[in-house]
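Weekly sync notes, structure subgroup
Attendees: PM, AL, DS (notes)

Item 1: joint prediction request from the bench team. They want all three components modeled as one assembly rather than separately. Inputs as received:
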Amino acid sequence: MGVNHSSNPALEMGRPPCFEDGLNKGVWTAHEDEVLGNYVKLHGEGKWVNVAKATGLKRSAKSCRLRWLNYLKPDIKRGNIALDEEDLIIRLHRLLGNRWSLIAKRLPGRTDNEIKNYWHSTLKKKVQESSSNHCKSKKKHVMEPSAESAESLKMDACLSPNKDVIKSSSNHCKSKKKPMMEPSAESAESLKMDSCLSPNKDVINCTTSSSAHPFPLPFLVDEHPEAFTSVEPSFDEGLGKEIVAAQPPESGDEIFPVNISCGNDALWDSLMDFDVDQLCLSEILDENFASFSEFDSMIVGECGINGCQDDPLPSFSDLG
DNA sequence: AATCCCCCCAACCGCGCAAAT
DNA sequence: AATTTGCGCGGTTGGGGGGAT
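Output from the run, pasted for the record:
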């Protein structure tokens, strides 16, 4: 990071101007920035086709939009990404995957492009290195969940009915490029086992909270009985419905909180009604970073995401 | 000092969704 | 209902910077 934005970037780096199809491509000049900035400040965001035409800039609507959102917008935060921001990105990425725009929404002043770049250039390696270290150091990770982690699981249950998160999962299901796992017979069976398949679609099972993970996450109830402690029913204002917490499954049951968006339309419909804006993940994470780490370790560690079945991912306190 | 090579990041591209027609 | 248009998102590209050799 630490790019000097004060000077003209067109003269320093990036692609040279290109004039194919009558449109300028490549790095924006200071003059173009000024024209675009003035126009948007005057007329507001949106209608990017009009912006491109009205300003006389030989830029595509897309290019104008991107330039504004990633560079010219006044509230964009410049400079290095702080440690706590870094931590948050890693957590959110674990939770949301490559949903850069969603992650960016939780980091005021940061753009999805910036976060995406930062992830690919810095954080990805950091996480991988840390992950491989743990793969070497710990053969079998047994985590005793604390009261805190149980608490954080409840919290996660509340986090998960996140419209955007789930919608994103849906998009992945539909995506031709990266199709999501279709629910296997096995996972479908486990779904039946899970009370999230309740005929009452207004009842949302807390175990479905792991739907944010695009993989089946099996773990034994016996090992984490406290993870299934029922929570107080909450009331969703948007839905006008009571959200009922899950009852603890029978001892010995193996829970597969598969991606519900792919296999359970009824539940999916009800979850779609949640409004992401009602929850600011960062606030919750900020409040409960420590416990969230433990929960991460418990779930991710036990469940072998990243194909490292025996070895857990590290908690974030281990990173860096 | 010169060259090589990797890193960083701005910007482009293709795709999908939703609203408008 | 079908088509068009606009927008947003995530993946990828490409070139300058700067450290390594």
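Discussion: Residues 12-16, 27, 46-49, 61-62, 65, 69, 98-101, 112-113, 116, 168, 171, 177 of chain A lie near DNA strand C (CB under 10 Å from a C1').
Action: AL to compare against the crosslinking data before next sync.
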